[in-house]
Automatic annotation (TrEMBL):
Ranges where the GATOR2 complex protein MIO zinc-ribbon like domain occurs: 1000-1093
Pfam families: MIOS_a-sol (PF21719), zinc_ribbon_16 (PF17034)
GO biological process, one term: positive regulation of TORC1 signaling
MIOS-like alpha-solenoid domain residues: 584-859
SUPFAM superfamilies: WD40 repeat-like
UniProt KW Repeat keyword: yes
Keyword tags: Repeat, WD repeat
Similarity field: Belongs to the WD repeat mio family.
This protein's name: WD repeat domain-containing protein
Source organism phylogeny: Eukaryota, Fungi, Dikarya, Ascomycota, Pezizomycotina
């Protein structure tokens, strides 16, 4: 045997019941026995040392007994063979002496306790010794060393005189047969039982590195020393006479190839050029085969290791497939089916020699179902376990379409927005498991528990579980963009989509920034959530405003964008994000505004939108602070009288009940602050006038009409800044408060542990906005027990209440520039104390828009208010800010806002529902119709038929004007018609029966009238109902099979009903349809390509 590198050699036990491997360290002359742990993956290969044998002689060759786990044979340069006991740490050994000293070049154990020793050539002696070591097969693991009578004096057989034996291997299916490599002559197969000593000869120079395919022992491989060639042989080619008389197709093909000189006789596959031969980074320019190893669990799988560290796996199969009923007894040609480079970096110029593979062996596994693994030894002395790539990956890839299935996904693969999309063909049960069974098993077995008896039992149970048909589909595609983080428990436990989105948002914020817990939002704690999100997003540095709190719009955009891109989320989370509109529709996200608040509760801004529309029907005017007079220095001092605006709990919907927003000739339903102040009825103004032909009313008429509305709504008079339009301001202030809970109600919903700093500052600020200075002071006094820093603000407000504005600024040192940069309400209070200017409050975009509008309407002059409102409407339209509903109401301006909002977030569902309140009754815009059609199509293709029908019915009712709906009701979608003449069955009986029958049908058939009356035949054309495309029997008549004896009750019922495909119009019995579409998607008619059972999003459980 040629010289070996320092790290030595590695060999796995041939016994599958012993998961151990040997390491022979040639430099230190130590044999170590290792045991791997339960896992067997590329990246993890833990093992432990069981024992070791020290001070072994310098070895030239070796072998490990397949039947005695602790017996190893070492061949030396002197010809002496040492038998080592390696499993007990005793360092015991026996010596087998040849007659003449010469190199021992090969040793091999058989499964029947025989040891063959191949020696170098010498005159007057045989060179193949066969020893009987049966007495060593009973070694007791508990007794160290060898027994006293274990000495072996003479070999049982001596063969092959005066030749050089270079390699030996025993066949395991016949332990008395072995193949021997003879230097410069060829290969010989000996049967030790043959007294005549007859052998089978194959002439070749490939007489080294013999390896037998133990999974199909007709084949064995060998290689020469001077060429990078591997030859595979077939032992059935021994007798040429018998082979040439064999009539099998495979044998005749082999004989023709051998006679033509394509292969030497006995060889069935010659691998030339399979190894890399040139490597400029090494002094040795040629590559020779170092070792050959066949995998014991997979037939034809050969591992080849070269001196350059190249490790290649070749899978060889028969060139001609044998018939199922024909068994070939002669040699068969082989072909290479697959080959794999196990370490493709062996030619890397930057690779160091210590990373070369110097030895390997296949791991003996318990089942061929497991993916083949091999243990390798690198020049650095490191062990690794490699897995051969699995063929089922190619099997499954054949089911993946190579073209992009729909538009919008073409482009650069590195672009997340344009990444190409491939998925497996959707197979129905039970074919799903049958077709994808190999891949299902591989997913269970890959890198799993492969070593250890108990782990093998678990593995078998896992395989059986994977192959058991499941009700739900198994996603077999690995999404490289999906995250592997564990989702919070609240995600799986929450049935509502809002709770799931809130859990995902918390998960994303926690993973990307810091630990942030978003509070549960309800209808009354919108501002508390808003303030908390301010602080959270500021801590994450998501805000673009570094001089103060982020604007309300920025907080909303950053909040929604957390779940806008599902990349990085686990698959179950991506499903929720991708189908939010569908899940909301399933929860009846429609025209019940109070229900919509709960369904969209994860987004406080959408909650605010629905609150403005819905509100509450109860109005409590008690405990209302009176309004202050307009005075720069005493603007917070309350006066007697009615307040200028109570904390209204109405909404736009409840305000419009019983004509509450109608004053002849104006219909002001669902209008906003800007519409009221600007006297704007929208582009379709005639629809908001009782007399559509009347001219638009002037400003004076608007003021009179709004005065009537204020009386209907029981609104208090406006007393504040001087104005020409007090009734305008009355109604505008009421609109700002629509859906707003009172401060007391909001505070009552906070427990003692939930009284956050932001909640107190919010309540204080809103009290100041209403003019309730005393209430604001009391709130701060109460909060100062938990937050002492608020006592300072309370003192300042008390000084201002007494009129000492300058003292509050000078002695308490209030400055707008040092106002709070985290809490928008505390910043507003501080700015007001420091400047006394309400404009500073209005310009703080961190505050919710309705609070800023409330302050502007209350304190701005007429011209200033008009300009500011116009500017804010333009900004809301430009940014798509849904808070702008308080300005625009449900009008044409809101369509412009939603246009940008849909462009940003894609939520055309909310836009459609909100605008359907007034479109097309008061709004005539093509975008509303486009969003409506898109939403209807979305529900239809996701099979949300009930939700789609409910939406159409309710939106049609919303479009009524003067009792008549503007949207035309959808046509009747269910009717019984003849598929031949399209006559409607409901019209039967309206036509007179003449002598020729209905429509002139010939009544020569006496059963025609009966079949028409029974509904089996058409009353118009006389054709009977179509046939079931599965059983080909006419629908509606008694079936040939007896359904009453069916075991399944549902089958007995379903067999009486037909079912139609609305696309291809083919008909089936209902029980036949269930059976067919449980396995298939396409129509049963062969020439029809209709995908009757197509499901756009199978991850959504439609049933």
């Amino acid at each position: 045997m040629d010289t070996r590198p320092e790290p030595g050699l590695v060999k796995w036990s041939a016994n599958p019941n012993h998961d151990t491997f040997l390491h022979l360290n040639i430099l230190h002359r130590v044999v170590s026995l290792y045991e791997p742990s339960s896992t067997g993956e590329n990246t993890r290969f833990p093992f432990k040392q069981v024992s070791k044998h020290e001070e072994i002689p310098p070895l030239n060759t070796y072998d490990w007994s397949p039947t005695v786990p602790g017996l190893v044979a070492i061949g030396t340069n002197s010809g002496v063979v040492n038998l080592l006991r390696v499993d007990d740490g005793s360092n015991a050994y026996l010596e087998l002496m040849p007659r003449f000293h010469r190199h021992c070049q090969a040793v091999a154990f058989s499964t029947q306790a025989k040891l063959a020793v191949g020696l170098d050539r010498v005159r007057n002696d045989q060179c193949l010794y066969v020893w009987d070591v049966n007495r060593l097969s009973g070694l007791d693991p508990a007794v160290p060393g060898f027994p006293s009578d274990a000495s072996l004096d003479q070999p049982a057989l001596r063969l092959e005189p005066s030749v050089s034996v270079s390699s030996i291997k025993f066949f395991e299916d016949n332990p008395n047969t072995l193949v021997v490599g003879i230097k410069a002559q060829g290969l010989r197969i000996h049967d030790l039982r043959d007294p005549s000593g007859a052998v089978i000869n194959f002439q070749t120079k490939c007489n080294n590195n013999l390896a037998i395919d133990y999974a199909n022992q007709n084949y064995f491989a060998s290689s020469p020393l001077d060429q990078p060639t591997v030859m595979i042989w077939d032992r059935r080619a021994g007798s040429r006479t018998d082979v040439r008389t064999d009539s099998a197709v495979q044998v005749r093909a082999y004989v023709e190839a051998a006679d033509a000189g394509d292969v030497p006789w006995g060889s069935v596959l010659q691998l030339n050029g399979i190894l890399h031969t040139l490597d400029t980074s090494r002094p040795d320019k040629s590559s020779f085969v170092r070792s050959l190893r066949y995998c014991r669990d997979h037939a034809g799988m050969l591992g080849i290791l070269s001196r350059t560290g190249q490790l290649k796996v070749v899978k060889a199969t028969a060139e001609f497939a044998a018939s199922e009923y024909e068994r070939c007894t002669g040699p068969e040609l082989l072909r290479v089916r697959k080959s794999h480079e196990m370490d493709p970096t062996y030619l890397d110029p930057s690779r160091k020699n210590k990373d070369d593979i110097v030895s390997f062996d296949w791991a003996t596994l318990s089942s061929p179902a497991l993916r083949p693994r091999m243990v390798i030894l690198r020049a650095s002395g490191k062990f690794e376990l490699m897995e051969k790539p699995v063929f089922t990956a190619h099997h499954t890839s054949a089911m993946i379409p190579w073209t992009v299935p729909h538009r919008g996904l073409e482009g650069n693969a590195n672009d997340l927005g344009n990444r190409q999309y491939h998925s497996l063909v959707r197979l129905e049960q039970p074919h799903h498991t049958d077709m994808l069974g190999p891949l299902l098993v591989e997913n269970v077995l890959a890198g799993g528990m492969v070593f250890g008896g108990e782990n093998r039992k678990l593995m078998k149970r896992a395989v059986r579980s994977a192959m058991t048909p499941q009700e739900s589909r198994v996603d077999l595609i690995m999404d490289s963009m999906a995250g592997k983080a564990t989702l919070p428990g609240s995600f799986a436990e929450s049935p509502a989509v809002a709770e799931k989105l809130r859990a995902l948002r918390t998960h994303s914020l926690t993973a990307n920034a810091t630990t942030i817990t978003l509070p549960t939002s309800t209808g009354s704690d919108y501002h508390r959530v808003h303030a908390h999100l301010h602080e959270s997003l500021r801590a994450m540095s998501l805000s673009t405003n570094r001089n103060g709190p982020p604007s309300s719009r920025e907080v909303h955009e950053n909040l929604v964008e957390v779940t806008m891109n599902p990349a990085g989320l686990p698959k179950e989370a991506q499903c929720v994000v991708d189908h939010t509109k569908y899940l909301r529709a399933q929860e009846m996200y429609l025209f019940d505004y109070n229900a919509n608040k709960k369904i969209a509760s994860e987004d406080p801004w959408l909650q605010n939108l629905w609150e403005w529309l819905a509100g509450k029907l109860s109005i409590d005017l008690a405990d209302i602070a009176p309004p202050p007079p307009f005075d720069t220095l005493h603007m917070l001092v309350p006066t007697n009288g009615l307040p200028d605006c109570p904390p209204m709990r109405e909404g736009a919907e409840s305000a419009a009940v019983d004509g509450g927003m109608i004053s002849h000739p104006l219909v002001l339903d669902y209008l906003g602050v800007y519409n009221i102040w600007a006297n704007d009825l929208g582009r379709k103004s005639s629809c908001r006038l009782y007399d559509s032909n009347a001219a638009d009313p002037d400003a004076a008429m608007w003021e009179r009409c709004l005065g009537q509305v204020a009386k209907k709504q029981r609104l208090p008079r406006f007393e504040g800044t001087p104005t020409k339009w007090p009734h305008h301001r009355q109604v505008c202030l009421a609109m700002c408060q629509w859906g707003h809970a009172s401060v007391e109600e909001a505070d009552d919903q906070l427990s003692a542990s939930e009284r956050l700093f932001a909640a107190h500052t919010r309540a204080t600020a809103q009290a100041l906005f209403r003019g309730d200075a005393e209430g604001a002071i009391q709130i701060l006094k109460t909060a100062s027990s938990e937050h002492p820093e608020l006592l300072f603000v309370s003192l300042a407000l008390q000084l201002i209440k007494r009129g000492d504005l300058d003292m509050a600024k000078q002695q308490l040192d209030f400055d707008e520039r040092v106002a709070s940069k985290t809490d928008p309400y505390l910043r507003a209070i501080s700015s007001l104390i420091a400047t006394g200017d309400w404009a500073t409050i209005v310009d703080q975009d961190a505050l919710p828009l309705r609070d800023r509008v409330f302050v502007a309407v209350r304190y701005f002059g007429d011209d200033q208010l008009g300009n500011w409102l116009k500017e804010q409407v333009s900004l809301a339209v430009d940014k798509g800010d849904v808070d702008g509903v308080v300005l625009t109401g449900v009008s044409d301006r809101l369509v412009d806002i939603f246009s940008k909002y849909v462009e940003k977030f894609g939520d055309y569902q909310t836009a459609t529902l909100v605008l359907s309140i007034c479109s097309p009754r008061y709004i005539d815009d093509h975008r509303c119709k486009a969003w409506r059609n898109a939403y209807r199509a979305y529900l239809q293709r996701n099979r949300a038929f009930y939700s789609r029908a409910k939406f159409e019915v309710e939106s049609t009712k919303k479009s009524k004007r003067d009792g008549q709906p503007i949207i035309k009701p959808p046509f009747r979608q269910i009717a019984l018609r003849c598929i031949y003449c399209d006559a409607e069955v409901a019209l039967h009986g309206q036509h007179a029966m003449g002598p020729m029958g209905p429509m002139g049908i010939n009544q020569s058939n006496p059963l025609m009238g009966t079949s028409i009356s029974a509904g089996i035949s058409c009353w118009s054309c006389g054709r009977h109902l179509p046939r079931c495309v599965v059983c080909l029997e006419v629908i509606g008549i008694p079936r040939s099979e007896r359904l009453e004896v069916a075991a399944d009750h549902e089958t007995r019922l379903a067999g009486r009903f037909p079912t139609f495909c609305l696309k291809c119009e083919h008909v089936l019995h209902l029980d036949h349809a269930r059976e067919w579409f449980a396995r298939h998607v396409e129509c049963p008619v062969p020439e029809c390509r209709c995908r009757c059972n197509f499901r756009a999003n199978p991850e959504l459980n439609y049933h």
